[in-house]
Amino acid sequence: MRLSIVLSLAAIGVAAVQAQPTPGTLAPNAGQVEDGRYQLRLTGPPWGCVEGRPFATGPAEAPYFGAVNCGLALPEVEVSRVRPNGRPATPQVRYVIRPAGLDRCATVARGVVFGRTRIDSLACQRNMPEDQQFTVFPSRTTPNLFQIQALNGKCWSARKMSVNGFGLSNYPDREIVLQPCIEGDTSQQFLFVKRA
């Protein structure tokens, strides 16, 4: 009898260890971010609010997502779950992220061979390709903060650019790029502030 209790407790302990996430991975969000309009705020360095730019800053660039100072004109994004439309449901909730009021979607930069992979602000495609779908994961170290992950496994990360927009105070001198996910990295932690 005592041996069977010990074995049962040992089995429970093994199951608990196996249920813990592997270091370096994130537990998937179980639908904690509802569809709606949000401010996406960086709550640590490099600080700021996320905005999807409506136009390109140069002839060889696409409009992109960046972080601006959270001032009087606070940028907003619209977040919505991807609907299967006849396709099989995925095990993780996937989201489309749009600059509020624009028919554009956050898109993993296409055709990147060298250098950073930025999050561009491109026309939303009807079939919602995978480069316009993202998953959202709660931080294990800081309550109410989330990481946004592309389907290639990398996370949104705010990165300081080499130029500051020629002195314009609200110019997004921080761009959103994809980097390996690092738990606790403040450049990858976003606060979703629900708007009316």
How does this structure look, described?
The protein is globular and about 40 Å long. Strands 1, 2, 3, 4, 5, 8, 9, 10, 11 and 12 form a 10-stranded antiparallel β-sheet that branches. A hairpin with a 5-residue loop joins strand 1 and strand 2. With 196 residues, it is mostly beta strands. It has one helix at 2-19; strands at residues 36-42, 48-52, 65-68, 77-81, 95-99, 104-108, 119-123, 134-138, 145-150, 154-160, 174-180, 190-194. 9% of the residues lie in helices and 34% in strands.
User: How much beta, percentage-wise?
Assistant: 25-35%
Mean pLDDT across all residues, rounded?
76
The percent of residues in helical segments reads under 10%
Number of helices: 1
Taken from the alpha-carbon principal axes, the silhouette is globular
Rg over alpha carbons? 19 Å
Q: Gap between N and C termini, in Å?
A: 61 Å
Largest sheet: number of strands, sense, barrel closure: 10 strands, antiparallel
Number of strands: 12
| Helix/strand order | HEEEEEEEEEEEE
- Uncertain stretches: 1-31, 164-170
Q: Structural class from helices and strands?
A: mainly beta
